[in-house]
């Protein structure tokens, strides 16, 4: 449906498909509202994905950034990590970071 016509009594619908398969080759048709069957569209994905924060392991130069669930101190890869709270706020995990843990990234990719 692309538009509502005549104060809600008709709908302008657009048909999909090859032009030669359409009735009289016409793509847009006005249809009386009562002749339509309207079905609700389901949400694409209602499952919330956990929001991972950044945890760190290793020393300063070899630091590895892990995906950590908020309030925990174990990376997704099961590595013990130090969460990085900054004034009560923690950094979101960035899988594209140069220092991102490859196992955490792989587990994130396989779980999504
Ligand atoms: Zn990790």
Automatic annotation (TrEMBL):
Domain of life: Bacteria
The protein's name: Uncharacterized protein
Organism name: Nonomuraea purpurea
